[in-house]
Amino acid sequence: MALLLPTTMMKAKEPHIISNYARRRAIINGYKSGLEEKLSRQIADAGLEVLYETDKVAYVWPLRNSTYTPDWKLPKANGGFFYVESKGRWTVDDRQKHLLIREQHPQLHIRFVFSNQNAKLYKGSPTTYAQWCEKFGFLYANKTIPQEWLEEGE
Predict the structure, then answer these.
(1) Rounded to whole angstroms, what are the CA distances from 143 to 23, 36, 56, 88?
(2) Residue 140 — φ and ψ, nearest 5°?
(3) CATH assignment of 32-151?
(4) Rounded to whole angstroms, what are the CA distances from 52 to 24, 35, 149?
(5) Which of 15, 133, 140, 153 meets the CB 3.0–4.6 Å disulfide criterion with 75?
């Protein structure tokens, strides 16, 4: 059975059919993607509290105020925390947003888990998601949260 969702991209009477089983299950469980649901299970399996989209971070996009809701908030041993953001597609807006957030909130630490760290930024780009993160000093991982990140809060 397919999950039907309305979409503004189609005619008003034609619902969007989600055919990917992992994504459909993720949406039913309150996530936006199969990767988010997978990472949530990984955090829970590590014995950590799953703090999914609990915080809002205010930032200014040039000429407008905006907020960003990080996917997960994970603890650090020193009592601090860091955010983990799962990304399937890493659009130019996403990249600009995270550079603005880091500039406006240098005390925040945001790390990324990509569904494919070797994906190119855009068709024909010489740069991968991983290379972009390295260039701008963001920590990242491929497909799963590294065990070291999960152990930081112990």
Answers:
(1) 15, 10, 24, 9
(2) -150, 165
(3) 3.40.91.30
(4) 18, 13, 16
(5) 153
| Phi, psi (degrees; rounded to nearest 5) at 97 | -60, -45
Q: Report domain extents, the chain.
A: 1-30, 32-151
113 contacts 142 by C-beta, under 8 angstroms: yes
CA 41, 112, 90, 53 dihedral sign is: positive
The per-residue pLDDT string of the chain (154 residues; one tens digit each, 9 = 90 and over) reads: 444 444 443 344 444 555 577 777 888 888 888 899 999 999 999 999 999 999 999 988 777 899 999 999 999 988 899 999 999 999 999 999 999 999 999 999 999 999 999 999 999 999 999 999 999 999 999 999 999 999 987 7
pTM, full prediction:
0.69
Residue type, 93: D
The count of residues in the chain is: 154
